[in-house]
């Protein structure tokens, strides 16, 4: 009888554990102002490459519910560490400085930093001598913003809370150019507003590795890495890539 009771208890514990695992909810943090990687559609729903990757990872981890939490870029890492969400999938560059605050997964795509400027500025150059005294825009707290401040101290770096606000100032004539992720610029240059602008010079940073952030020491990192490897192996990643770009960004 005791053995039978122990069996029933073990079975009950196992079922309870399985039910908990099946009912798991994870929250992903996204800026939702960085198309085509993350933004909102006409109905206010969060969409984009980052969102699709996050959903695919949740599906691979068999998470019952994956919720999206939108956060301003400036406070997005503090929000993660304050447990407002569980992982951050918002085109975050993996840097040594950020590694002090969060843990990163393996990179889920690679980017480059490149200037854009008006097509009419045919003589635009990306060297420090030409850019001296010019006003160049970038999003605040990004690799582009840091590059302008560290590598081009004689250039006036104008930093913005969102990439979209930088584009507004460019089209209003308040900027000589913008430095940002190439694949974000690529998307904007295809738009009506971006049609009078073009890439200038070669990328100034060739390999910007983008990762998913979790809180320091969180075992969720390993689960995400495993799921990331699986979506790359089974073709899910390629389908998401091809939805947004006619070339691989992996």
TrEMBL record:
<dbReference type="InterPro" id="IPR001638">
    <property type="entry name" value="Solute-binding_3/MltF_N"/>
</dbReference>
<comment type="similarity">
    <text>Belongs to the bacterial solute-binding protein 3 family.</text>
</comment>
<protein>
    <submittedName>
        <fullName>Amino acid ABC transporter</fullName>
    </submittedName>
</protein>
<feature type="signal peptide">
    <location>
        <begin position="1"/>
        <end position="23"/>
    </location>
</feature>
<dbReference type="Pfam" id="PF00497">
    <property type="entry name" value="SBP_bac_3"/>
</dbReference>
<keyword id="KW-0732">Signal</keyword>
<feature type="domain" description="Solute-binding protein family 3/N-terminal">
    <location>
        <begin position="25"/>
        <end position="248"/>
    </location>
</feature>
